Amino acid sequence: MAVIHKFNHFALGWDKIGQVAAISLAFVIPISTALTSIFAGLVLLSWLLGPNQTEKRRILCHHPLVGWLYPLVILTLLGIFYSSGDPQNIRHSVGDGLRLCFIPIFIYCYQSKVVSKAALWAFASAMILTLILAFLKVYAGLPIGLKYTTGAVFKSHIKTSYFMAIAAFFLAFQLPYVAKQYRLILCVIISLMIFYLLFMSVGRIGYITLVACLLAMAWQKSRVKGLVVASMMAVVMVIGAYTTSNVFHDRINLLAQDLDFYHQGGRLLESSLGSRIQFALTSTSLLFERPFFGWGTGGFEAAYAKFHEGEATLFTDNPHNEYLLKGVEFGLVGLCFLLLLFYKQWRLSTQIPIELRGFYQGVLLTFVIGCFLNSWLKDSAEGYFFCVMTAICFAALPLSVQPKLVKATLH
């Protein structure tokens, strides 16, 4: 009995460690790739060594979302055997694909409302810290994040702007649930985050995410009427930013310059938009060459190089588009699995508790949009962010219950 008691105490200790690590993970995702890997590994270790193994197996087998993750994971493993990529690219792509396996693990860790709420606020706190440091960097000359442009501190402008917009969206959803004396503080923080996005950030994905979140919140609150009002607000906000913010103005005008460079040809290094157009055209051609199962796990870079063999062009290891990446590496089968996963998430999101539903639907919507512009499931920060937010919001869903057989009796 003493041995059993010690084992149970040991297992419960790991459970607590896992919960703390899961909260910490939400904080470090927008800050450090190394710390993200460390805390994700600690969550995995605590999940393996902790108690409630039966409950964990039930999540793996019966959670209504988890089953939709497995086709992509299985396809990632099968793609190793026919991949055209080199061992390093295959290894990296396997890691990216298997990251989805963290979702059921995180679901277990975030089942406690206290833990899930703490994790969401930890993420928001990380972005508030980023906001403070960004103001100090830009307006006080603090020498931090010097390798990143303008207001980016810990991550690139693309990642930071997206995370900042999501953090503002989360805080806006918290306004009805916080005490009245804190609402003004939240409103000030949200306003500063919007100011950051429009006046201090060159991340265009942040602009798109901000507008998408505004429209999503308006639709959720007031449907068509809210959408109309929010659309007018978005137009005023964009026009106002274009006429008053040099950063926003220059980033929008740069799109026209990028197109001009692209049409001139041979200037893809100078054209972000032009390079993405080239990546998309080549990726579409590669998809048509192997339409069913693609070029295999990690095969994109080799396939892209082979397609442009002998040409003086810009090469890449991903098309900056998650849908095209899945299509090239896993064909239409992989692309369909990804779309089905997003579709199932949206359908199941209607069963999420009301205090999380609107927020998660906005996160999912912006992530789906962002995947047109970036290979986000391949990227570490965005990939872990997707897994954590999905797990937090779907941890409250009941597990699928197997139907019981009832024998008929005569009375």
- Unreliable runs, pLDDT <50, ≥5 residues? 401-411
Mean model confidence by pLDDT: 92
Mind telling me the C-alpha Rg? 23 Å
Derived structural class: mainly alpha
Strand portion, in percent? under 5%
Name the helicity range.
over 70%
Shape: globular
Give the total of domains. 1
What pattern of helices and strands is seen along the backbone? Answer: HHHHHHHHHHHHHHHH
Q: What's the total count of β strands?
A: 0
User: N-to-C terminal Cα separation, in Å?
Assistant: 49 Å
Number of helices: 16
Largest sheet: none
Can you offer a commentary on this structure?
- With 411 residues, the chain is mainly alpha-helical.
- The protein has one domain.
- It has helices at 2-28, 33-49, 53-62, 70-78, 87-98, 102-109, 113-140, 157-174, 180-200, 204-244, 246-264, 272-289, 300-307, 322-349, 354-370, 380-394.
- Mean pLDDT is 92; it is low at 401-411.
